[in-house]
Amino acid sequence: MIEVIAEILRGPVFLAGETLHCRITLTNKLSDENDSTNNQETSEKISWASVQLHCQRYVNEQKVNLQQQQLSNSTALIATKGETGQTVYTSKPCVLFCDLTLQPGETRIFSYSETISTHVPPTFRGSYVKYSYKLTIGTQRVNHPTTLIRVPFRVLVVPDLDKFIRQDKAAIASSQTGITVDNPFVSPNRTEIDSLTTALDALQILTSRAHQHVYNITNNRGRVCRFTLFKNNFKLGEDITGIIDFDHTDVSCLQYTVTLQSEEILNQHYRRKSSQFPNLTSFTKQSEFCLSTSQTYLSLSIPLSCTPTFSVDLVSIRWKLHFEFVISKTPRSLLSTNNDPSTSTIWLPSSSIDVESMTWDLGIKILPTNPCFANNVAKVSCTTVATI
Q1: CA angle centred on 37, ends 31 and 40, rounded to 5°
Q2: Fold match between domain 2-157+372-387 and domain 213-330+352-367
Q3: Domain 213-330+352-367, what fold?
Q4: How far is Cα 115 from Cα 192, in angstroms, rounded to an integer?
Q5: I need a labelling partner for 207 at 20 to 30 A (CA). Which of 74, 138, 175, 274 fits?
Q6: Do 296 and 290 touch, CB atoms closer than 8 A?
Q7: What is the residue extent of each domain of the chain?
Q8: pLDDT digit string, tens, across residues 156-169
Q9: Structure-derived torsion over alpha carbons of residues 164, 168, 171, 173, reported in degrees to the nearest 10
Q10: Which Pfam families does this one have (predicted)?
Q11: CATH fold for the domain made of 2-157+372-387
Q12: What is the pTM of this model?
């Protein structure tokens, strides 16, 4: 009996362009560990073992028309054997060994590393489509069928990462020739490209606060409020902060709700019906009563488990802040002024107010974060144990 342990090092979340490292441990385990006799008879031979990364795409056929689209990425080892859906990405297969013999109780450890392509979709589970990544180990004992062992992992994609890598390469080449290039992504002492470092530097630049954005939210009777957002690009795990100002407005607002929402938009060429709308998913929400409030603050957290903004041929994911306002149809009555300091004025709101509602959407962009942070909320195990 051979026990195989496949473990993805550092955790199950990676950025596209990053190198994945895996440790594969094979142990010849006796059925009775106390029996040390007949060692020659209990040695085990394994013909071969191979490793490969792949991404499977699953679609809701009731809503998505692939128009007989064919994807061909087959190899000698069919790592996706037994999987449903279509294979949209496979790495080159790597042969770990051939003709391996393990004595009773013997353990052999093999290492595997592969750089994930930057031209891949992120891990995503939506209503129309799903993208799932797995590391597959194929192995075969002598006179036994082939066994496939799979370890799932998550991929996040940084937009335009290739552009930042090219900038790094150009800056490094220029520094080696003595030409000074002002590139914020490259340290003067760097001599080679580190995709993870480049991606994290790019994310820092893309999500930095450049200037605040001010929006006047109005309806046909005038201004409802003024909303200030400090930036439009955010990373997973960040807080979306802003200021909602109700001072000097034309319309009285009684209550507001802000919801962080994602939109799964199916390319119109693949829709079963032309009337298919984007699939909306709501995440964090903030709601407050604001009658007679001059100013309040917005703070919405972005879950680390979310899928960042992305767009591929089949589907795209966009993010927005969805505002809902409950506003009064009649002007707010003014309080009378009392100049007598010995008395006080008590104001009570009306028992019933004639109201109406309005909505307003603001698009934002959500980008990946450091994969080490996302590992903390990963729902998949980075270790798989199997017996062959």
Answers
A1: 90
A2: yes
A3: Immunoglobulin-like (2.60.40)
A4: 15
A5: 175
A6: yes
A7: 2-157+372-387, 161-206, 213-330+352-367
A8: 999 888 777 777 66
A9: -130
A10: Rgp1
A11: Immunoglobulin-like (2.60.40)
A12: 0.83
